[in-house]
Specification:
245 residues, alpha/beta, 4-stranded parallel beta sheet, two-stranded antiparallel sheet, disordered N terminus, binds zinc ion
Length: 245
């Protein structure tokens, strides 16, 4: 069992650890390159939170009214998705840095946005798990950035984390360039959840970007098939341009 329960002290220790890392290896801002910070205050200010009062109540698509056209045509299986901001500008650069430049301490800085977003919700979550990376990408990158974010969030909000509750059982193509139907087909049956870990639980899935709601919906489907109750999803960013196809 890989569950961590009620461990806020770890969160404090981890914060201290990153302060020590910054002292040894001074960081530079992921947005503008300024020395001494991982994300400077003027870059942080450029990341505008999504206005959840005007976004889709189900998938959080900005300025979509009560229910966006995609959700109206086929409601994703998760109960609700919330994202912090649009995938653009400083946030896009920061996520890129986290994914491709091994800037692991940046996960801690970015996760503050997830913690703030999570605390605005009325979700009663029993278990937090990341969207699993494909084995091929895990081998290339060496770590799953969504697992890092999920772990830090879980520690901060004192909810059990389990990186084995949701597994990828099939490799998928990139979702970029596919239409809504193709995206759903691409990820259908790609995930499996462990009933021993998720049955009767309210689960929160964490990812860095919601490129489409199809992947998160397929994850939620696997979790619900395994007996999970409600399934919520949270991401740092979401893309908006391809959701209209
Ligand atoms: Zn900056
Ligand atoms: Zn929607």
């Amino acid at each position: 069992m890989h569950t961590l329960t009620k461990t806020p002290p770890w969160f404090a220790i981890q914060q201290f650890f990153w302060i020590a890392v910054d002292w040894l290896y001074p960081p530079s801002c992921a947005g503008c390159g300024k020395n001494g910070v991982r994300l400077c205050s003027s870059c942080l200010q450029q990341i505008t939170p999504i206005d959840h009062h005007n976004s889709c109540s189900h998938c959080d698509l900005p300025e979509a009214g009560q229910l966006c056209p995609d959700c109206q045509s086929q409601l994703p299986v998760f109960d609700q998705l919330r994202s912090y901001s649009i995938y653009e500008g400083v946030l896009r650069q920061s996520i890129h840095q986290l994914k491709y430049n091994n800037d692991l301490p940046l996960a801690d800085t970015l996760c503050r946005m997830l913690i703030s977003l999570f605390n605005q919700q009325n979700w009663k979550v029993d278990l937090i798990c990341p969207v699993p990376l494909s084995l091929q990408r895990l081998r290339q990158r060496g770590y799953n950035q969504s697992a890092l974010l999920a772990q830090i969030l879980a520690w901060a909000v004192a909810i059990p984390y389990n990186g084995k509750a949701l597994m990828r059982v099939r490799e998928t193509l990139s979702q970029v360039g596919l239409n809504a139907e193709q995206r759903r087909a691409n990820v259908k049956g790609a995930f499996w959840a462990d009933p021993r870990l998720v049955k009767d639980k309210t689960v929160l899935i964490v990812d860095d970007i919601a490129t489409t709601s199809a992947t998160l919906s397929a994850c939620a489907e696997a979790l619900k098939t395994a007996g999970a109750g409600e399934v919520y999803a949270i991401t740092l960013a979401r893309t908006v341009h391809i959701n209209s196809s």
